Request: fold
Amino acid sequence: MTSIEVKDLRKVYRLYQSPACRLKEIILRRPFHTEFVALNAITFSVGRGETFGIIGENGAGKSTLLKVLARTLKPTSGEVQIHGRTAALLELGTGFNPELSGEENIYLNAYLMGLSKGEIDQKKQEIIAFSELGDFIRRPVKTYSSGMTVRLAFAIATSVNPEILIIDEALSVGDQHFQKKSIDRMMRFKNEGKTIFFCSHALYLVQELCNRSLWLKNGEIEKIGETPKVINAYSDWVREKDAGMNITTAGGAPLERQTESPLWIDWIKITDGQGHEAEVIKSGQDVCVRIRMRTKDPSIRRQGHIGIAINRNDEEPVYGATTKIDGFTPLWLFDGQEVCVRFPSFPLLAGQYYFILVLADEHALHPYDIYRTDMFSVENLYGDLGITRLNHSWDLGN
Reply:
């Protein structure tokens, strides 16, 4: 059973340079506007009892989508079906008449949500108590602070017993006490099988609350699915963007190769514990980075060292080691030699990474060859946060 069904949703705004252009368009029946596509080809569904997240940059279309779902904005085309009573917390103060008191706005908003006066009378004290506004409930909303406004809005929306709750960043406003109360109430809704549609820049909250999520990018769905995978993809993209990287970075290739180098890397393979090549690694599984060497003269063996580094996709160094650092004397390197650098229980958490392998002289100073692998992904199914998993235990005093 679904609570929200969206099919081929599209929202286009007409932009006019001036009011005169709008008037000329009406009179001359010719277009004097440009179009801005806020949402394009949006299709998804949210099951009953599901907590569904939406993430993306500012301007990606998140608020537009929420307004369409809350029926405060009409789509240009497409189909939106909402099954059940809906309460929405959108932009701060939306739906409030600033000249009316908080108490009067309770009746106004609850009426709009479909409650009768008798039902509102029964719930009014619960709403006032949750908002903790005290005597301010009888004062005009225009005298409220932003925190007081969102307290009242959240109290109304969650006290009218909606089957679907739509929230846009409401938990980012207000003091810590209110945020804790709001999260507790949302968890109660979640446990009661209510449907929650939650939009936030706080990725930690999205990950903790939402079963599935949607990443909006430039008004289109970039990724939809299990929340950790969607957040990982979005975080990778943000890091790459911040670092000024090209997201379609070329695959594995030598970074530095001397034309007369006597020694080079022929290929690199990243394999799992069973020896299968892997583009996706799960945190905690065994990983082997296998390299094959070639020499200019196959009859000559040369002494040297091997180095390995792991970088995140935003070029942030994660780890590095060499055979010299690890206490090995110079190795004999020869044509066709294969070497494996093994990482038992690979500790990195979710993200995109790449290896850099180096062949160097016997002093580990002069590089013969430096090779960067393709980008690979790490999936973390444990819920840890950060870059790497650390062995730890809890002493809870029992």
Notes: The helical segments are 19-28, 62-69, 102-112, 117-131, 146-159, 176-191, 203-209, 227-242. The chain has a mean pLDDT of 85.
